[in-house]
Amino acid sequence: MLDFLKTLFNPPPPPSSTTAKERLRLVLLSDHLSLSPETLAALKADLLAVISRYVEIDSSHADVTFEHRENDVAVLASIPITGVRERTQPPAQATLPLEMSAIDTETHAVQIDAGSESVDTQAMNDTNASENGATSTPVTGVVSAATRRRRRKKAQNLANRSNANAQQLGKPAQA
Amino acid sequence: MSGRRIVVTSGKGGVGKTTTTVNVGAALAKRGHKVILVDTDIGLRNLDLVLGVEKRIVFDLVEVVEGRCQVRQALIKDKRFESLSMLPAAQTREKEAVSEAQMTTVIDELAEMADFVFIDCPAGIEHGFRSAIAGAKEAIVVTTPEVSAIRDADRVVGKLTAAKIPLRLIVNRVRPEMVKSGDMMSVDDVCEILASELLGAVPDDEEIIDTTNRGEPIVLDELNKLAIVYDKIARRLEGELVPFTTFDTPNFLSRMLTIFKAG
Ligand SMILES: Nc1ncnc2c1ncn2[C@@H]1O[C@H](COP(=O)(O)OP(=O)(O)O)[C@@H](O)[C@H]1O
Ligand SMILES: [Mg+2]
Asked: Are B184 and A23 an interchain contact pair (Cβ–Cβ within 8 Å)?
């Protein structure tokens, strides 16, 4: 009975094999994250291109880094905002900065957990965004250059298709 | 004849590269293939001891590379498996004694004489590793189900992938009862973490130490359960699709008891 109560209030710790697996996942992730300077530059360029579609930014003071945190590794983007773009419609979902394919290296780009990014919108409104407006997104894996190319192509196809659909429906195609 | 050139590597030392090289090589020789094992661990020669041929060494890999003898003169034929031979490492030379180009030349020459050339790699990812993989076209990455061995194996997997050398994993020293109780990562866990294909899983077994003491490959004893494990690995290398049996499947008797109880 006492044992039962004990286990009720103190659930047993996870088996050590589970702990080992989780620790390895994290440590290998950060081992793999030693990205080449070219890849890091490409990531930064892609990121800036996307953000500048929504807000005006000062790309010369933008900073993209990786941070090792308690339970994950995060990509941190600190990008000063200099103004707001006038926009009547949000851009199409599948549009990626395709022309902006930046430098294509045989190395790696990062894979992120899109479900749990924490953009502090309050801080983003602050014009001094370089201090407070950092976007922090957990990194969940590393993507090979080949995979990136495939994804870009897929996104391009999707974008083309949605533009074609829009035209069929007599709507203006979205940029 | 142009045989397969397979490097056996791990990153971390002491996980079972030499044991694997000797036993997988012997299992293939037993199946009728001509097999040559090459010890590239210069300064830490070991394969000769594990195979039990240490008393018959005349020349070594470095002497072959330096042109002091023919490669055929340096090969030591195993007396138990007539299609098995080995090329010993130099024991008293610098680790850097063999360059990548020299290694490639020797391995190419050996591949003309055998169906399988196994290159037993030194630990680490420095010069010795680079020259050991230089002559290889395939790789076996050996790891144990432990965090440090897996992390090191991951480095090696990355380097082999960059060198475009296809690889498969051998998970060594698995303890099924610990896997069952959650105290050891499973073979599937290891393959998942390393995102690599499995070639075989070898249980942790005291008998390995016993047979190594004697310098006898475990596959000499056909009925030994590890001999069966290594034979399966040999067949997979031949290209046969040998199903993977998990160790934790209950043995025949306890399975019968379960059926009996259920019925
Ligand atoms: N499956 C196994 N079960 C028990 N002991 C093993 C097993 N595989 C290897 N060993 C032991 O582990 C030690 C290191 O093995 P070895 O093959 O020399 O490793 P490496 O060549 O990677 O340094 C040896 O003492 C060997 O007998
Ligand atoms: Mg060894």
From this structure: no
